[in-house]
Design brief:
Strand content: 25-35%
Pfam families: Pyr_redox_2
Number of helices: 7
Radius of gyration: 23 Å
CATH superfamily of the largest domain: FAD/NAD(P)-binding domain
Number of strands: 22
Order of helices and strands: EHEHEEHEEEEEEEHEHEEEEEEHEEEEH
CATH class of the largest domain: Alpha Beta
Bound molecules: flavin-adenine dinucleotide
Family: Belongs to the ferredoxin--NADP reductase type 2 family.
Subunit structure: Homodimer.
EC number: 1.18.1.2
Helix content: 10-25%
InterPro entries: FAD/NAD-bd_sf, FAD/NAD-binding_dom, Fd--NADP_Rdtase_type_2, Ferredoxin-NADP_redctase_2
Length: about 325
């Protein structure tokens, strides 16, 4: 075990955890961020790095992976360590010899740390895409569940399956480079932002609704001799494509979190928090997608508010005499 005691340990290096880490570092706390993935950025890098985000303040539009790069830079300027490939497997409250205050002992797959406070920013836990189950014999490498390299789709024919924001966003994004994009959805209506549906209707994407994919088979294109997928849809029509991108959502798994020793109140996979984002345990806060309270939206921007709020609450408790917020201009040296 390391002898160091952190003021704040943040679990999760998604946008919420990164921004909370920046803010805690700017306020001169001894802070660290832990994440089980190999890269920072949470859902943004793991699920939609190429997608444009339009609802982050200050950006007209920003590519998800670029927002993460900027957040990491912003956080690292204060020397905040972002420890990747370290899954938190347990948190236990322990006594201190020199004081009555408890500490939290955080065990990861690599090390054990001590911290006065914890901010949980674990999103929905680890996530895996919902797999399309369909008949047929086909090359599974042509059925994709995330799109990390838009240029690979240059000049290709692509089908996208799904009816939510990500299916529409990906269809529009791919239509910029692909020869043809077809969007297949089982209902006539889409579960997406009104503006996205408007963009879709004005785009070159062929919308095939209400239809499902009944079968997928490998076929060889007679002209190019390239191997393709033939999709048979529920009305009997067939569609030949180079790739199928399935966007049916994600299954989240927080089994590891439920196994933590500390007894945290949860509502399904979310942590129940009070008006200051504290859980039922003193000095353990939860922010971002993992926090549950009335009116929670699940947007990046919410996590950006919740992080600084939680840090200020923690500082008021662990540092005497410095309880209030401060403006960033007063914390950066004058140039
Ligand atoms: C396709 C798609 C498009 C979206 N588009 C938008 C959009 O345009 N605008 C918007 O505002 N929101 C959008 N969202 C939602 C947005 O991505 C989330 O609100 C945001 O990612 C939440 O950030 P977070 O930091 O709370 O959690 P996450 O991004 O989920 O990050 C949580 C991190 O915690 C880590 N973690 C989990 N368990 C552990 C553990 N035990 N130990 C260590 N680390 C752990 C995970 O590895 C992960 O890196 C979109 C979501 C999806 C899926």
């Amino acid at each position: 075990m390391t002898a160091e005691i952190y003021d704040i340990t943040i679990i999760g290096a998604g946008p919420s955890g990164l921004f909370a880490g920046f803010y805690a570092g700017m306020r001169k706390n001894k802070v660290q961020i832990l994440d089980s993935l190999e890269i920072a950025g949470g859902q943004l890098n793991a699920l939609y790095p190429e997608k444009m985000i339009h609802d982050v303040p200050g950006y007209f539009a920003v590519k998800a992976e670029e927002l993460v790069t900027d957040l990491v830079k912003q956080t690292e300027q204060f020397g905040v360590p972002i420890r990747l490939s370290e899954q938190v497997i347990d948190i236990v409250a322990v006594d201190q010899e020199s004081s009555d205050d408890k500490l939290y002992q955080i065990t990861t797959t690599k090390a054990t740390y001590l911290s006065k406070a914890v901010i949980i920013a674990t999103g929905n836990g680890s996530f895996t895409p919902k797999i399309l189950k369909t008949a047929g014999e086909f090359d599974a490498s042509k059925v994709l569940y995330s799109m990390t390299d838009k240029q690979k789709m240059d000049g290709k024919r692509i089908a996208v399956a799904g009816g939510g924001d990500s299916a529409i966003d990906m269809s529009l994004l791919l239509s910029e480079v692909a020869e043809k994009v077809s969007l297949i959805h089982r209902r006539k209506e889409f579960r997406a932002h009104e503006s996205s549906v408007d963009h879709l209707q004005a785009s070159s994407v062929a919308v095939l609704v209400p239809l499902t994919i009944e079968r997928i088979d490998d076929v060889v294109d007679e002209d190019t001799e390239n191997q393709q997928l033939r999709l048979t849809l529920s009305d009997g029509q067939t569609l030949e494509v180079d790739y199928l991108l399935v966007q049916h959502g994600f299954l989240s798994n927080n089994k590891d979190i439920r196994a933590w020793s500390v007894n945290l109140a949860m509502d399904r996979q979310h942590f129940v928090v009070d008006a200051h984002y504290q859980t039922n345990q003193e000095l353990i806060y939860a922010i971002g997608d993992t926090a549950k309270y009335d009116g929670k939206l699940g947007l990046i921007v919410e996590g950006f508010e919740e992080g600084p709020h939680a840090v200020n609450q923690i500082m008021a408790k662990i540092h005497s005499g410095n309880p209030s917020h401060a403006h960033s201009t007063s914390l950066f040296p004058e140039k």
